[in-house]
Amino acid sequence: MISNNHKGGRSLGVLILAAGEGTRMESTIPKVLHPVGGRPMIFYTMRLANALKPSAIGVVIGYEADKVKASVTQIVRDCGISRPIHYILQKKPLGSGNAVLEAVPFLKKFKTVVVLCGDTPLLTFESGYALVQSHEEQKGQVTLLTAKLSNPKGYGRIVRSPLGEVLKIVEESVASSKELSINEINSGAYCFEVEALQVGLKEIGAKGPKKEHFLTDAMELIRNKGGKINAYMSQNPEEVLGVNSRIQLSHAERILNRRMLDRLMLSGVTILDPASTHVDADVEVGQDTTIHPSTILRGKTIIGKHCQVGPFCFVENAQVGNDCEIRMSQLTECRILEKCNIGPFAHIRPESVIGPRVRIGNFTEVKASRIGFGTKVNHLSYIGDAEIHEDVNIGAGTITCNYDGKAKHKTTIAAKAFVGSNVNLIAPVKIGRGAKIAAGSTVTEDVPDDALAIARARQVIKK
């Protein structure tokens, strides 16, 4: 394990760079808050930082600082991160070197610091851990995380000596043709001895039309003063891919989704067509469940064991019990208890609790309702703001008329009631146990237990 007690009795810190606007994203949303796998990009960096067991985590914020801070605060709560979080404001967008310079009061607390970018959501704990271990073992002043890419366009290149020693990092915009042919790239993840980092930061100059200070320039300065720069090369090049555009965001989404699907399949879930299946990072699926093609599982969805989900399903922040079947339907913020059959073309909306052993059929919508054991709503119905008890039959075309133009009202249907086809239940209304509602009725008054309600005009035939 990584020790928190380094030489001199001072501990390891992690600094996350999250101040950038991300102009190439063409967005008003801060770059690190763009979602990947259902979570903002910085979620994955925060989770990695916490896993490295630092004494504290610093987050450099700048563009839309309040929004980034609020998101990080939520991530800390969601992940149960107990380490101190320090926010450092980068007053002007003057590059990564300036961002780290602003963080020097935080960095001084540590002997060693890991610097991570908030826009690298694919970086794994294995590489982060190996970076710190390599730094400790090789006893240099800086250790870089690098990778070899078949197409290194857009990344800084690692320039080495003939003996393999790291000399410097050259940004692509100022690289020579020989340097551009190098395919070993800088990932943006570093491990620094803080004393050496401070020395390098003091001397880096401004570059480019924006007069920015680049952290990569500190490497050559550290080396020129006798420092040693080492590199740990990732064995998984895709994890170092950063996100600077919507195109790169889609690449990261695809890679992360593949990881999520692999995780599920290794745990005993059958995914018939991974290419058409999307699963967010927080989704859980039980053993021996089958996910059919063109299915999307979003948010904090939990699917039980031995279920059949899909094809063509969208499930978001829903809980589905064991032995359920869901076909061509949309479920959002609802609970489906065990042995339910949903769809095709059903829509289960928020605050609904369905089951167990309930059948919700084609073209049926359920909103903010509880439907009890064994009840059937087979087709073409709207059930809203209702409480339906066990073993009720809801006929085709039944509507709970829950809204009077000003407020929503409740419909209650007791156990073993039978509601015929094309019935309108004008809420608030209660249907008694074992009661029967004749087809085509519009019910405006409560119906007693075991009664038959017929609420329709007598047929008149005129010639």
Structure characterization notes:
The protein has 463 residues and is α/β, with parallel strands linked by helices. The chain has two domains: 7-240, Spore Coat Polysaccharide Biosynthesis Protein SpsA, Chain A, CATH 3.90.550.10; 246-453, UDP N-Acetylglucosamine Acyltransferase, domain 1 (3 Solenoid). The chain has an eleven-stranded parallel sheet, with helices on one face. β4 (56-61), α2 and β5 (85-89) form a beta-alpha-beta unit. Mean pLDDT is 94; it is low at 1-9.
Binned, the helix content reads 10-25%
- Count of helices? 9
- What fraction of the residues are assigned to beta strands by DSSP? 25-35%
Quote the distance from N terminus to C terminus.
92 Å
Instruction: Identify the overall geometry.
Output: elongated
- According to DSSP, the number of beta strands is 41
**Quick one: biggest sheet?**
11 strands, parallel
Give the low-confidence spans: 1-9
Q: Report the C-alpha radius of gyration, rounded.
A: 30 Å
Mean pLDDT: 94
**Which CATH first-tier class of the largest domain would you pick?**
Alpha Beta
Read across the widest sheet, the strand sequence of neighbours is: 12-15-18-21-24-27-30-33-36-39-41
CATH superfamily of the largest domain: Spore Coat Polysaccharide Biosynthesis Protein SpsA, Chain A
Overall CATH architecture of the largest domain: Alpha-Beta Complex
The tally of domains stands at: 2
Structural class: alpha/beta
CATH topology of the largest domain: Spore Coat Polysaccharide Biosynthesis Protein SpsA, Chain A
